[in-house]
Every structure is written in C-alpha cells, then in structure tokens.
Amino acid sequence: MHPVHEHALLQSRRHFFGRTATGIGTAALATLLNRDISAAAPKVIGGLPSLPHHPAKAKRVIYLFQNGAPTHVDLFDYKPELTKRKGEQIPDSVVKGARFSTMTGGQTVRPCLPNITNFAQHGKGGAWVSDFLPHTASIADDCCFVKSMFTTQVNHAPAICFMLTGSEMPGRPSMGAWLTYGLGTETEELPGFVAMTSRDKEASCGQIFYDSYWGSGFLPTKFQGVKFRGSGDPVLYLSNPDGQSRASRRTALDDLNKLNELTLKEFGDPETATRMSQYEMAYRMQMSVPELTDFSKEPQKVLDMYGPDVKKQGSFAFNCLMARRLVERGSRYVQLLHAGWDQHRNLNTQLKVQCQDTDGPSAALVKDLKRLGLLEDTLVIWGGEFGRTPFLQGDIKDVKSWGRDHHPYVFTVWMAGGGVKAGTSYGESDDFGFAPAKDAVHIHDFQATILHLLGIDHTKLTFRFQGRDYRLTDVHGHVVKGLLA
C-alpha cells in the first residue's frame, strides 16, 4: 500500500471526523441503517478495507516451526531404495553437482543412509509416518503432507528467513506481520501476532532465534510479533511500578495519548500511532495475560493430551497450549519456533528425543482445536526450513556419530485445518528422497497458498517501500490448488 493511503488509514477518529465534510451525523445514520449487517459481521480490529479478496477458508494461523530442519527421509518420506543401497555411493546422476553446507561440501564419499526409523501407512490416505511420530500418525486423516517442498537456501538463518519472510536477507516483514497488517485481528486484549520459542532440553545445537523471524520489516512496527518469554512474566514491564495503582496508570496513559495525538496530527508518523497502540495494548494485557497463562480451568484430559511438560513454561508443550488459547481469544497468527533438529552427528540419539518432545503436543493441538470447533478455520502448519541429506554425513562405520547434512532440494511439511485437503499427501520426491519428482512446491508457492486460504490474493497484498511495491512472495509464487479442499 502507498504511504499516503497508509497515513489516511492511520488517522485518529477525532482527526477523521474533524476533516470529514458531512461529519459524524452521516456515519451515525449509516450505522442505524446497517445495524443488522454490522451485527452479523465478525469483529475485526484494523486491517485493510479491501481485504479479504475472496471468501476465506482460514481465519487464523498457528505455525509450528521446527528450527534446524527435521529429516524427511526418517520421518515422512519412506525410501526403500536407500535401504537397498545402504553404504553405496549415491549416484552422481542424482546429485548433479548440488551444493551442500561446508560440513559435507568437501566430502567425496556420500554413502546412502536408509531410514533409521520404521515406517507404516496411516489414515484413509495411507500416509507414510515414522514410528517416532505415533501421535502425528493418529491425526493423519486431518493432515495434508506436502512431500515436494524445496528451497534455495542451504544454511539455517537465510533459509528460515526465506520461509518466514519471503526473503533470505533480514529486513522484510514476516508472514505474521503481513497478515495482521492486511487482515487485522479479532481481539483488543491480546496481540494479533505472537511468537514463542523453545528448544531441546539437551541444547544439542546452537540455533539462534533472530528477531527478524517475527519482525515487521518496513511495515509499521505495530505489526511485528510480540515475543512471549519462556520464563517469568511472558511480557516484561506489564506490571505497574510499586506505588502506582491501575487508576493512576490509566490517567497517565490518557494524558500521554493526548500529547501523542497532537504529534500524530502534525506529522502523520505511523510510529507515533504504533506507540499509542502499544501503550494501550500493554495496559489491557495487564488483565488478559495472567488469565491467558492460567491453565487451572483446563480439563485434566486436555492437559494430559499435551503431555507432561504442558505446565513447564518455555516448553514446546506449554507453547502449543498457549497457541490454542491465543487463537481462541482472537489472535490472528501464532508462531512457535522449536530448535534442536540439526542432527549432523547425533541422528541416532537426538532424533528420537526431538520427536518425543514435539510429536504429542503437535497432535494434541490439532485434536484440541478440532474438539473446540476451531480447526475448520484455523490453519496449522508443521515443518522446518529444509530437509536432511539422504546420504550420510561422516563415516558409515562410526554408527554413534551418524548424521545428515542440510538438504534444501526436497523436504516435507504438513498442514491441517483451515481449508486444506485433509487425509492426503501431495507431491513426491525421487527414489532417493533427493529432489522433487512430481508436483514441486517452491517456498513462494507455499506462501501464496497460505495467503489464498486466508482470503488474500498474494499479488495484491503489497506495501510501497523505497519506490517499489513489495509483497510476501516477491514477484513469484502460484497457489497450489492441489492442497485446497
């Protein structure tokens, strides 16, 4: 959107009515005439008047992002050919000069490594799922497994940035920022976009959570994700200072808002509007956040479903239940990032641990949303930034240090709810799990499809910055119709 139009949208009510020739009377009359229509419309705060572009299947998104890249050939993409050729050099005709990370870039011996787990088919669609993920297997009929994803980035940070912002370089708005900018939110009590992080208990890899993963880039900063902390108060500085009552805080905020309104009228800086909205949000969150984090009224069966770590703040299980409670209360986009999947030298030990930590809570989230009638219009996404190599990193004789390197050429993610074609698998990789063999899905295609499910034409949700109209999918991307119900 052009900054001039953005400024018009960000005017205060007082400023708008003061400059409107017909004044508030016409607006009041319109309200009376359309009371029935207004009552039927869902509550939406903010957003662009032109959205949605078409009827939406999904209203909100929960992204369970698995930092470090889960190994597709051990979890979802069963390849008997790797077992048949165990220890043999992967054919050059398959690799075709592909680029890998520095950890195997100079490795000339690349023996095929079969799946270290057992596979079985599940659900009516017969989805292949590893025995390390029994809970995910139990929701196979709710999921669409996309087995032909590919990306262009071979290292973690640029690949994660690409997946979440559409650019391998930091600085672009994240998907959650685009959605809250375009669609607004359904709550005034909690942020429309929340990010939470967790990691494996063993701290087996050094994944870093960069703020750009939930940043707003060149969009006004009020659209960036609010990061909930993994210990102590979820959000800092919500509590009133000693000696200040809630009433006195309200008076101070009212006076401060009057000063900020004068500045906003004079300069029209969106950051002034951001400051005002964030002060108000913080005030409301003093009441809403304690209730949000109080699990005492959750049925014990629900808590048991999420697993033993559900009450441990900062755990993946805790964050999954928080995600459900957030979307239940109106948040638009919740992004969970869980690190620990970077198994270069500890595949035989750490993969199982990671699966035990994340499998149950991920499936419980889908089941819980379904129980509450929220899955139909909530899109749940599970996956990482790329996959892992079908060949071994290291020496095949050294079983204890088996590992797999980064693999951008094909990998698997799954989606549930929100209008996706449940109980199906889309796309295929080749016999080695090395590259797409059918229905390849690029990152921008995936992003375009997510936006489509939310009622957005990805080519039309733009923001003008430095003389160019930017969008999440840059100048690429096509909606993957085969993923739609």
What does this structure look like?
It is globular and about 75 Å long. It has 16 helices and 17 strands. The protein starts with a helix and ends in a 15-residue tail after the last strand. The chain folds into three domains: 1-41, no CATH class; 46-234 and 293-483, Alkaline Phosphatase, subunit A, CATH 3.40.720.10; 238-292. Strands 1, 4, 5, 6, 7, 8, 11, 12 and 15 form a nine-stranded mixed β-sheet that branches. With 485 residues, the chain is an alpha/beta fold. 47% of the residues are buried. α11 runs antiparallel to α12 and α14 (316-328) runs parallel beside α15. The protein has helices spanning 3-9, 13-19, 23-33, 35-40, 72-75, 80-84, 92-95, 134-138, 156-165, 175-183, 246-267, 270-292, 300-306, 316-328, 347-371, 443-453, and strands at residues 60-67, 119-122, 127-130, 143-150, 193-199, 226-228, 333-339, 378-383, 387-388, 406-407, 411-416, 424-426, 428-429, 436-438, 441-442, 463-465, 468-470.
How are the SSEs placed, and which strands pair?
Blueprint: H1 3-9, H2 13-19, H3 23-33, H4 35-40, E1 60-67, H5 72-75, H6 80-84, H7 92-95, E2 119-122, E3 127-130, H8 134-138, E4 143-150, H9 156-165, H10 175-183, E5 193-199, E6 226-228, H11 246-267, H12 270-292, H13 300-306, H14 316-328, E7 333-339, H15 347-371, E8 378-383, E9 387-388, E10 406-407, E11 411-416, E12 424-426, E13 428-429, E14 436-438, E15 441-442, H16 443-453, E16 463-465, E17 468-470
Parallel strand pairs: 1-7, 1-8, 4-12, 4-15, 5-6, 5-7
Antiparallel strand pairs: 2-3, 4-11, 8-11, 9-10, 13-14, 16-17
Helix pairs in contact: 11-12, 14-15
